[in-house]
Amino acid sequence: MGTGEAGREAVYRKPMKKILIYNWVPFDETENKGGGVSVYTKNLIRHLIRRDDLEVYFLSSGRAYDIRKKGTFIEPSENIFGDKCRSFQIVNSPVLSSARLSFTSLWRENEDVILKQVVRQFFLEEGGFDIVHFQNLEGLSLGVLALKEEFPGTRFIYSLHNYYPFCPGVTLWKADSHNCREKRCGEGCIGCMPGDVHRWKVILNQWINYRKQRGEQVSPVWGLVQRMSEKACAVWDSRRGGKISVKKRKRLIKALRRFREGNVTYLNRYMDLILAVSQRTAEIAVCHGLEREKVAVSYIGTEAAENQKCASAYPSDGNILRICYLGYMRKEKGFHFLIEALEKMPEQTAERIDLTLAAKITDQTMKKRIAGLRKRLAGVTVYDGYTHDRLPQILENVQLGIIPPLWEDNLPQVAIEMRAQGIPLLVSDAGGAKELTLSKEFVFAAGDVDDFISRLLALAECPDKLADYWNGAPKLTTMEAHIRELAVYYEG
After folding, report:
1. Do the beta carbons of residue 381 and residue 407 sit within 8 Å?
2. Surface-to-core class of residue 198, CB atoms within 10 Å of its CB (0-12 exposed, 13-18 middle, 19+ buried)
3. DSSP for residue 296
4. What does the alpha-carbon distance between residue 430 and residue 434 come to, in Å, rounded to a whole number?
5. How confident is the model at residue 242 (pLDDT cuts 50, 70, 90)?
6. pLDDT at position 4, please?
7. Distance, first Cα to last Cα, the chain
8. Which of 57, 93, 285, 467 is the most exposed place for a label (fewest CB within 10 A)?
9. Where are the alpha helices (H) located in 157-300, listed in sequence order?
10. Is 0.90 surpassed by the pTM of this model?
């Protein structure tokens, strides 16, 4: 190629776009904070940095604290992708993350102006961004969204992975018992507020972690202070009995009401696009006030979809139906519901069910009930949690996955992982997992033990029906396909 042609190529080559990805927790942290959103964010960045038309940045907030320094500031941080992704973190954010830690001081999200000033300066110093893609809003205040007024050329996009804009508890799961139908935040939300969060204790713990992550030596004295603070807070909580002062209660109720109203108003006003991770998530978002025209359904890409199976990996032999539950040992996830249903299942059916549980054992009362199931079922295998590397081993010979959430689980990562391995799923009608199949025979009413048993019984008696799960079932979204879709959204 001659110099003239090279010159023309330089003239017509499209300039690189600068994209900033935000999540409250660093995408490469090793403590499994942030769950499936962290996994997705890491995969997203891994694929974005391969493009030669994007310059990728990452920002987190609400986890890094340095009590030796005054004020809030942004500093560079290291990440697993090196200089391919320039990562930063907000230090000493007025808003703690995750959401649970900031529940008791929501007025900071509503009223804070410091974060707006700090992020504005960051935008200016880095030369501005073409796209800011929020994976969460936790760790930020409303004022940050209002920066759209000062940077109208920057495209603001928000992926709605959970219900944080409408619920400071993130899940719209009320009092650990039922889905929340409150028309607005307020006094009813106080019952969901965690009673063991103390801001100063959280910041102390985060500061010690911050120093360790930076490779700094931490005096054993601080470990002693940490333990003493834990005991002091436990004593305070026991004496208080979960009660809060009248003054703080009134302030919190006011903040709760402003929280949802402010989030909905600011998202509608300043976001160019809101990407709901499932159709059900989009429906709930619109129901809570987000403008329908701004909400689009965008199923997240997953690396598990690269080699996805579109038929059952382990067809039944007609004798034993092997089922599996992956995830958390929590009520809203449907774990307790599943155990109860299996306890009530008719004996003749129970004898034909082999159960695999892969969940971190966090509820000791469940040990006895699981032991009781060993006497009823054909077999019970328990894994104390799981890693992605062990999934093929855990799912070997499993013929049916169970996804039984009671809350409107946006799109469970475990559902995607099992589906990709060729495991058909029996799911509740709460949340987005039901969107992975077109067959209603694999969907039961959330929380309805009789309906669940009826569906499971039908599959146990006629295992050939397992193949129906795949009839017309939409394929899982690969990361490559997801990136192509995002590229269109990024262009606007």
Report:
1. no
2. middle
3. E
4. 8
5. low
6. 53
7. 34
8. 467
9. 199-213, 220-240, 246-270, 279-287
10. yes
Distance between CA atoms of residues 81 and 46, nearest Å: 8
- Separation between Cα atoms, residue 61 and residue 97, nearest integer Å: 7
Res. 11: pLDDT tops 70: no
DSSP output for 222-253: HHHHHHHHHHHHHHHHHHHTT---HHHHHHHH
Output the six-digit token pair for 144. Answer: 């940050």
Closest listed residue to residue 67, CA positions, set 194, 159, 202: 202
Number of H helices, E strands in the chain: 17, 16
Which amino acid is residue 335, in one-letter code? F
Pairing mode of beta strands 54-64, 85-91: parallel
Tokens of 95: 């808003």
- Please give the distance of CA 63 from its chain centroid, rounded to a whole number: 16
Q: Which residue has the tokens 């995750």?
A: 98
- Among residues 133, 185, 189, 136, the alpha carbon closest in space to that of 156 is found at 133
The number of beta carbons lying within 10 Å of the beta carbon of residue 127 is 8
| Spatial contact of 108 and 137, defined as CB atoms under 8 Å apart | no
Report the alpha-carbon distance of residue 447 to residue 333 in Å, rounded.
11
**Would you place residue 9 in the very low, low, confident or very high pLDDT band (cuts 50, 70, 90)?**
very low
Structure tokens given for 92: 């000493």
What are the DSSP E strand ranges found in 140-221?
Answer: 155-160, 173-174, 178-179
Ramachandran category for residue 241: left, alpha or beta (phi over 0 → left; psi -120 to 50 → alpha): left
Question: Coil, strand or helix: which one is 91?
Answer: strand
Do 428 and 442 form a contact (C-beta atoms < 8 A)?
Answer: no
Q: Give the H or E element holding residue 420.
A: helix 413-420
Question: Rounded to an integer, what distance in angstroms lies between the CA atom of residue 321 and that of residue 481?
Answer: 34
| CA dihedral (441, 446, 451, 452) positive or negative | positive
How is residue 412 annotated by DSSP? -
User: Residue 470: left if φ>0, alpha if ψ -120 to 50, beta else—which one?
Assistant: alpha
> Which residues neighbour 193 within 8 Å (Cβ) at sequence distance 6 or greater?
103, 104, 252
The owner of tokens 């927790």 is 25
Q: What is the pLDDT of residues 154-206, one digit of tens each?
A: 999 999 999 999 999 999 999 889 999 888 888 889 888 887 788 889 999 99
Q: What would the mean pLDDT of 469-491 be, rounded to a whole number?
A: 95
Residues in the chain: 492
> Alpha-carbon distance 160 to 283, whole Å?
12
What is the DSSP code (8-state) at residue 478? P
- In terms of Cα–Cα distance, which of 383, 449, 455, 380 is closest to 424? 455
CA angle 61, 64, 66 (to 5 degrees): 135
| Burial of 382 (C-beta count, 10 Å sphere; 0-12/13-18/19+) | middle
